[in-house]
């Protein structure tokens, strides 16, 4: 799935231009540029405090950027009220009004706009039906489960007919089972309404499963904004590779250049790894990522560190059975962890145990080069 | 709100201070700036006696209300298991707060009187043969009424801070082998000290500023600073009354400041 | 009020100290309510009954005496004034506490000063406030009366209470409610009336209860500021010195009944609202197929 699969004319395209947000002395968002195509499902992903919620709130109009512009469908919306922007927000706690029934919660927007009572009741019921909550219309929020409350919150946001729906950690309050169910439900509703969803989360798998476009953030900066598949397979920086997971990240300083390879010092050991055609300078920072499931495990001691291309040796320090595969953690000569995900059939054919000396290797085409600029960080 | 408080609290306070410097010759009050009222106040032996008496009441009432307030809150917070019961019993303790203080005070009169319920009960049980005279219209009666009226002001803040104590702390201490007494002394008391301080401020300022309980319950046998002041007011001796009001104010503020020095209540209140 | 502590998980045998403390608690409650109930009972004395037990018959004689204005002063007038004044204080306290509570959520110029002013006026001995206001009115040659100076005097007592309750209530108020309101297109005014006030209603009723009862029973501040016409507590105060019949108790019973009506109304409606909002969630029904 590529971002912007819907036509360019789809509503709810968002553009952030050099947006900065400061709270007193702390900078929550640093000079960010971002384009989200209309009709996309976009996930803002990052650890807490990375600025993702601040971005969401600036798009929603609950915060104003200190600097820069927020454009929705090519129109600058800074300073405008949420309704004028055509955005609607779903809050982390849902913020359903506890004194109103589900129907009145959903009808709230119509009420403040002065829609006649009969009409707003009818339209609220219609919207409740679209999120499959019609039979709960007369209940109060406290009488609903978390998942049901979320549907009501969704209906309440959608009744404003927004171009963009903003979701702040929408699944974090739910238990595992409901989370998976609601995940599918969110995607269904987004497709049905054909509007942009911007979804803030700190869960990698949630972002990858849902999003057309994933924006990985750290410390107020965007580390990578790309399709889910690219973020997973071709992380741009060591940070993204580590945060998304599923990768072995190796970084260090270049010691020697050989044909098609470099010897790097990772700070505790030396590694000989494949290098791109234009070899990096001696002393430069260099980083690669190799997917855990593309590494082969050898049940024997490998050659001394740094002598064999694309290979690492060490001792098995942990084994985790994951059903169809095993997670094998190896502690290498430098004391760092290296993880191999091996299919269960392969593993149980010749099992290893914790404490065994093993080595791992990977094909040159599995090496993914990380952006040198950020390796040093 | 600030305006109302300034108008009916700030300004009057300044006026009291101003009046305390006015010239007063026993009949007339003239705007002036004289220290005579203060000189008279400090020159009088009665002043010292009054303050000692008031402080004596304050100290005794403080100790009793603190003990009762702490014990009752401790019981409610740590021994009552159901939240519903806890809130119910807490309300039971606080409801009298919303009823008339004067009525609650008066209700002791038939109880403690010479032919009162208490004496009748004592005599009926054969413990005493003659009614006890010291019960009503005495310092004893004053203290009983104070405790009756003001213990609530101790219970509510202590209960509030105790209810915030994390139960696991107590369980951890118990697992660590601490005895019940040590747990109370080393965990519960320090963690409820803001409540204790708040309650103490309430009780002490209430006793220090009281005049009607002393007047009624002691049968005018005893006196307090505020009561003497109210008598002066009744006799239209405003400047001396104002001077003694200022002195009382200073002393009460010092006591409150002393409590605040020991415990920082601000955090608690602003939350 | 306080956040209730969670019930203890284990329901084993209660320790000995429990029974000791429970006994202490029972004694305290008896101490609190015993004497009060005595005067309520005594107010139903027969016409020949005295100030103490035994009861000489049961009658409503003394309640009649109260309203007949024989020797009890202007009871009905004082009663009406007290109720009206309490209603006034209640309204002003509720409105100002809500506004001040909202204002205090942001630091504003002088907020610390106002806060300390409120605390100081809370712990100031009441008679000093009364004296101060009385003198001020005298200085500016304004007649003191129950609906000006006494109203002000009582506000110095009820406003700080109202403010502190609003602090407690607002500290648990989730701002997302307001943002949700704004997000859904409500104006500030609509957010206030349709979202904030209804959600805070239990706390606001609590403020109202304080405003009403504290004013209705207020004595030391009112004494010097009520002017020519008495309020009810002052009427009672007058009676303690010159009335020696159970009419005094009857008056006590009547005022307490009023207080209890106020308490019951307030606590009852709070309980009703809380129960309505906190009904147990329905069992999780799988509405809508798993996607």
Detailed description of the structure:
The complex is a heterotrimer of chains A (377), B (271) and C (291). Chain A is of the alpha+beta class. Chain A folds into two domains: 14-233, P-loop containing nucleotide triphosphate hydrolases (Rossmann fold), CATH 3.40.50; 238-375, RNA polymerase II/Efflux pump adaptor protein, barrel-sandwich hybrid domain (OB fold (Dihydrolipoamide Acetyltransferase, E2P)), CATH 2.40.50. Chain A has twelve helices and 20 strands. In chain A, the strands form four sheets. In chain A, strands 6-7-8-3-9-10 form a six-stranded mixed beta sheet, sandwiched between helices. In chain A, a hairpin with a 2-residue loop joins β9 (213-218) and β10. The longest helix of chain A is centred in the middle third of the chain and has 18 residues, at 176-193. Chain A starts with 13 loop residues before the first strand and ends with a helix. Chain B is mainly α and 271 residues long. Chain B has a single domain (45-270), classed as MetI-like (MetI-like fold, Orthogonal Bundle). Chain B is 74% helix and 1% strand. Chain B is built from 15 helices and two strands. In chain B, strands 1-2 form a two-stranded antiparallel sheet. In chain B, β1 (23-24) and β2 form a beta hairpin. In chain B, α11 packs antiparallel against α14 (238-262). Chain B is globular, with a radius of gyration of 22 Å. Chain C is an all-alpha fold and 291 residues long. Chain C has a domain at 74-240: MetI-like fold (Orthogonal Bundle), CATH 1.10.3720.10. Helices cover 68% and strands 0% of the residues of chain C. Chain C has helices at 16-42, 61-68, 75-103, 111-123, 126-139, 149-171, 176-183, 188-216, 220-223, 232-242, 247-277. The two termini of chain C are 44 Å apart. Classes of the chains: A alpha+beta (377), B mainly alpha (271), C mainly alpha (291).
């Amino acid at each position: 799935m590529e971002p912007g699969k819907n036509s360019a004319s789809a509503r709810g395209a968002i553009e952030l231009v050099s947006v900065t947000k400061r709270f007193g002395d702390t900078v929550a968002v640093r000079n960010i540029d971002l384009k989200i195509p209309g009709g996309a499902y976009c996930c803002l992903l990052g650890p807490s405090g990375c600025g993702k919620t601040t971005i969401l709130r600036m798009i929603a109009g609950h915060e104003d950027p200190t600097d820069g512009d927020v454009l929705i469908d090519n129109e600058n919306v800074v300073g405008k009220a949420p309704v004028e922007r055509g955005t609607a927000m779903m809050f982390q706690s849902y913020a359903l009004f506890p004194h109103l029934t589900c129907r009145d919660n959903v009808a709230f927007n119509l009420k403040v706009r002065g829609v006649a009572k009969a009409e707003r009741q009818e339209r609220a019921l219609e919207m409740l039906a679209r999120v499959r909550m019609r039979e709960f219309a007369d209940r109060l929020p406290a009488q609903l489960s978390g998942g049901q409350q979320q549907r009501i919150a969704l209906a309440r946001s959608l009744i404003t007919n927004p171009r963009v729906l903003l979701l702040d950690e929408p699944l974090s309050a739910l238990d595992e089972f409901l989370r998976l169910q609601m995940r599918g439900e969110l995607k269904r509703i987004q497709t049905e309404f054909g509007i942009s969803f911007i979804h803030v989360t700190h869960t990698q798998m949630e972002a990858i499963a849902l999003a057309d476009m994933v924006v990985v953030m750290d410390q107020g900066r965007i580390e990578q904004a790309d399709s889910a598949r690219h973020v997973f397979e071709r992380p741009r920086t060591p940070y993204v590779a580590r945060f998304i997971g599923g990768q072995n990240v190796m970084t260090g300083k270049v010691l020697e250049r050989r044909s098609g390879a470099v010897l790097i010092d990772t700070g505790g050991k030396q590694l000989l790894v494949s290098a791109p055609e234009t070899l990096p300078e001696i002393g430069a920072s260099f980083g690669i990522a190799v997917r855990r499931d593309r590494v082969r495990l050898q049940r024997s001691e490998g050659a001394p560190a740094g002598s064999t291309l694309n290979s690492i040796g060490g001792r098995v320090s942990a084994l985790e059975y994951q059903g169809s595969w095993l997670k094998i953690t190896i502690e290498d000569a430098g004391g760092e962890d290296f993880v191999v995900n091996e299919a269960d059939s392969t593993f149980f054919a010749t099992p290893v145990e914790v404490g065994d000396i093993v080595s791992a290797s990977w094909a040159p085409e599995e090496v993914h080069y990380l952006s040198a600029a950020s390796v040093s960080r | 709100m600030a305006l109302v408080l300034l108008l009916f609290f700030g300004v009057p306070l300044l006026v009291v201070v101003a009046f305390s410097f006015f010239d007063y010759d026993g009949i007339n009050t003239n705007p002036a700036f004289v220290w005579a009222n203060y000189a008279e106040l400090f020159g009088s032996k009665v002043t010292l006696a009054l303050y000692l008496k008031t402080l004596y009441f304050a100290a005794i009432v403080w100790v009793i209300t603190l003990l009762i307030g702490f014990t009752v809150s401790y019981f409610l917070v740590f021994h009552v298991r159901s939240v519903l019961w806890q809130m119910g019993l807490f309300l039971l303790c606080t409801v009298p707060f919303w009823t008339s203080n004067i009525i609650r005070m008066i209700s002791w009169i038939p109880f403690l009187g010479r032919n009162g319920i208490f004496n009748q009960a004592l005599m009926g049980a054969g413990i005493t043969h003659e009614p006890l005279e010291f019960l009503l219209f005495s310092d004893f009666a004053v203290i009983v009424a104070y405790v009756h009226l003001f213990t609530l002001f101790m219970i509510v803040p202590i209960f509030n801070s105790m209810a915030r104590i994390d139960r696991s702390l107590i369980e951890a201490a118990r697992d660590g082998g601490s005895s019940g007494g040590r747990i109370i002394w080393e965990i519960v008391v320090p963690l409820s000290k803001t409540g204790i301080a708040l309650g103490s401020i309430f009780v002490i300022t209430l006793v220090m500023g009281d005049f009607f309980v002393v007047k009624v319950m002691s049968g005018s046998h005893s006196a307090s600073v505020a009561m003497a002041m109210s008598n002066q007011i009744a006799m239209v001796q405003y400047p001396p009354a104002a001077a003694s009001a200022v002195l009382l104010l200073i002393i009460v503020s010092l006591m409150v400041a002393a409590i605040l020095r020991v415990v920082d209540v601000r955090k608690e209140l602003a939350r | 009020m306080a956040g209730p502590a969670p019930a203890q998980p284990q329901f084993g045998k209660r320790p000995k100290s429990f029974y000791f403390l429970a006994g202490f608690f029972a004694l305290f409650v008896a101490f609190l309510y015993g004497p009060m109930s005595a005067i309520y009972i005594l107010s139903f004395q027969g016409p020949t009954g005295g100030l103490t037990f035994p009861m000489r018959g049961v009658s409503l004689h003394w309640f009649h005496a109260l309203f007949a204005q024989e020797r009890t002063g202007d009871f009905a007038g004082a009663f009406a004034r007290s109720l009206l004044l309490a209603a006034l204080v209640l309204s002003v306290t509720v409105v100002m506490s809500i506004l001040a509570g909202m204002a205090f959520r942001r630091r504003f110029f002088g907020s610390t000063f106002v806060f300390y002013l409120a605390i100081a006026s809370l712990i100031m001995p009441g008679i000093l406030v009364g004296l101060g206001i009385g003198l001020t009115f005298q200085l500016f040659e304004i007649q003191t009366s129950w609906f000006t100076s006494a109203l002000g005097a009582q506000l110095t007592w009820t406003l700080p209470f109202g403010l502190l309750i609003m602090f407690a209530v607002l500290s648990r108020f989730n701002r997302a409610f307001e943002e949700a309101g704004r997000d859904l297109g409500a104006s500030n005014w609509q957010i206030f009336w349709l979202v904030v006030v209804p959600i805070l209603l239990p706390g606001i009723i609590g403020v109202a209860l304080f405003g009403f009862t504290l004013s209705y029973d207020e004595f030391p501040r009112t004494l010097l500021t009520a002017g020519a016409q008495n309020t009810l507590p002052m009427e009672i105060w007058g009676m303690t010195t010159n009335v020696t019949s159970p009419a005094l108790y009857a008056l006590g019973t009547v005022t307490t009944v009023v207080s209890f009506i106020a308490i019951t109304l307030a606590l009852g409606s709070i309980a009703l609202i809380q129960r309505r909002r906190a009904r147990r969630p329905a069992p999780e029904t799988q509405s809508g197929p798993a996607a």
